[in-house]
Specification:
By secondary structure, the chain is an alpha/beta fold. The protein contains 15 helices and 10 strands. The protein is globular and about 65 Å long. GO terms for molecular function: ATP binding; ATP hydrolysis activity.
Amino acid sequence: MSLIEINNLKVHYPIRGGFWNRVVDNVKAVDGVTFNIEAGETYGLVGESGSGKSTTAKAIIGLEKATSGTVTYKGKDVIQAENRRKLHYNHDVQMIFQDSLSSLNPRKRIEDIIAEPLRNFEHLSKDAEKLRVLQLLDIVGLDPDALYKYPHQFSGGQRQRIGVARAVATHPRLIIADEPVSALDLSVQAQVLNFMKKIQRDFGISYLFISHDLGVVRHMCKNIAIMNRGRIVEMGSREDIYDHPMHIYTKRLLAAIPETNVTHRKEHRQRRLEIEKIYQEQHQRYYDKDGMAFPLTQVSATHAVALPPDEAQQYRQNKRNEGVTI
Ligand SMILES: Nc1ncnc2c1ncn2[C@@H]1O[C@H](COP(=O)(O)OP(=O)(O)OP(=O)(O)O)[C@@H](O)[C@H]1O
């Protein structure tokens, strides 16, 4: 049995409009996602911005309400909050966020930030708690005087280490890492990634590693799923995805990885342009097949107002033709 099984997970956001503010459409942020994570592995979830990766992560951890589907942990569906409590799911599954500055409370000292999950789940004595926080600081390579400092007094890489210390405090079985290094410089990225690997070896943790960067994912993940517009378009081992990509979207993402070898640059650019052209054609068909008049991002609540006036008018007209009051 896998550590966690995600089956046909959907998160649809309603779009309201018209005089009665009724639901006129849905943004299908996640639309039928299925994958499993094995104990001790790092599973990669890759896709461009807006493909639904973060919403998938939030639905798995329970920060976002799933419209339908199941997330099975220890044989039970943890979409039900009651099961989450019973199975110690909130203790066993932790998250690391991309933006360490906004995910760490700026008014709290590092001691309190790292101790927070311990206070929620383990109820240790004051001394035992302090000792544990000091051990965690040591594990992530920070000095004991960090205890009394605030998040803004650290660099981005150090803050991300603090996020990791907080996530591993309760010895979780799975850490969902949502773009954990994309805000960092390349050299610091490598440091944090290697460090995450070390923690994994030491503690036997699994990761769901979310990124838009196929270069980084290659370094971290054995199995990978490629996400586009709320769906997984391709999944497989690292070798399958990098050496024999099947889906045009995967090929396009791969072609976008910068080519460092100068002699291959021209060839690479040519290949990238060809793939981009095929993608544009298929992209159009993708929408037609789904019967959508506009790209998903354009019908989302946040983007609907940003439509050019003539397209917005056309959109409303199409909706009226479908019998929707708008
Ligand atoms: N609360 C919301 N209401 C309406 N639409 C939303 C909401 N949250 C996300 N979306 C839409 O869902 C889609 C997926 O968003 P999501 O943040 O999961 O993508 P992502 O792949 O994680 O992108 P990024 O890496 O930029 O965060 C986007 O089109 C976004 O506009």
